[in-house]
């Protein structure tokens, strides 16, 4: 059995990375303040993030780490970009919480630009809704190691190429995203995901004509009119996308000829 690394060894390694105190500036882009409460918990004496040299500052001009919380709202997008530009290089950008990573439950709201990465590159993601103080310190430890790499200019190249198998083989990823987004819009986040997966199973099984026949049979047999209406709306979107693709391919062939 491999010997577990002790907490003392981890502390020693982290302190070896930190040559001085690291300054952190927090930017709330539009969240529920749940993430802020966990951040404040991380700097209390119970967890004491400052023992690692992590200090919160009041201006991005002094910051080594920019920690963004909440979804990227329209109102806070420009202030967030100004904070990013004001921080000196090298700097680390951290997306903190589900909303900052992807927009969370507000991702398709009219006033939201999804997550932090829509405005500038992100170095570290700390997932959670909200992340715990322990996860916060773990994520900041990862950020500190990245900061050390940026200062020293270290680069790593992966020698092995990993291939990820798509969830729906044979289905265009853009089409799958469009179907999932439309399903969530029509029936909510939880039910929309289930209905989108149900519809994409039909798409995965055959060509457009076969899919069209199966969907029509499904709608005739479905007893829930609400589900039938949503499936029909998704099918209309699918047929529109298939028609656009066919027209694009025909135009390309015409240019070649």
UniProtKB/TrEMBL annotation:
InterPro entries assigned: Complex_I_20kDa-like, NADH_UbQ_OxRdtase-like_20kDa, NADH_UQ_OxRdtase_20Kd_su
UniProt record similarity statement: Belongs to the complex I 20 kDa subunit family.
Domain NADH:ubiquinone oxidoreductase-like 20kDa subunit, chain residue ranges per copy: 32-142
Keywords, alphabetical: 4Fe-4S, Iron, Iron-sulfur, Lyase, Metal-binding
Source organism of the structure: Hydrogenibacillus schlegelii
GO molecular function, one term: lyase activity
Protein name in the entry: Formate hydrogenlyase subunit 7
Gene3D superfamilies tied to this protein: 3.40.50.12280
Cofactors: [4Fe-4S] cluster
